[in-house]
Amino acid sequence: MAEVKVYGIFAGPFNRRVELALKLKGVEYEYIEEDRSNKSAELVKYNPIYKQVPVLVHNGKPICESLIILEYIDETWQAIAPLLPKDPYQRAMAHFLARLIDEKFVMAKYKVCYGKGEEKEKGRGETCEVLKYLDNELQDKIFFGGDNIGFVDIVASYVALWFGAIQEAIGVELLTKQKFPKLSKWIDEFLSCRIIMENLPPRETLVPLYKAQFEAATQKASS
Description:
The protein is α+β, with helices and mostly antiparallel strands. It is built from ten helices and four strands, in the order E-H-E-H-E-E-H-H-H-H-H-H-H-H. Helix 1 links the parallel strand 1 (4-8) and strand 2.
């Protein structure tokens, strides 16, 4: 049995975070592709509450939820490519930014995609609010982690790749170089890193998946 296993789905932004962290640290792992419509018995066994990916299994012990998994990986393989800063304040801010992305940004994006009228407009405003905060947070740094990719960069891969694909799929343009120059520069720098390029799905494969998803949701809502 492999020491480290990752359960995920091909287009899943959250299990890709886990894989990026393991790749950055040079940790070998076995990847198990899951089917959302037919979840494996192992996935249900390892994550009986949510029955969702990602799940990291290390020496037979499962860890769920991507942010928790990332911290576990960083603490377990501390000596290689640290993801979280040692300074308590900077560490706290990294956790704050991660939760900002996973909670406020993801929910705002949902309103943009599926909301109507005032709710959709509110979602656009909330999305831009988070993007502006991230843009300001970068200051003159190459990455959120400084000179090297860190915890927040990995979490923000959702913004760098998946949100761009979603924008294209639904025909909106909120994240632009004119509005958010520092964040846009970070996206270019982040996605051009070899280890990132090799371990994220191509954008051209994500766009049609999201288009089909949104079209199905629209048809369901109108029926």
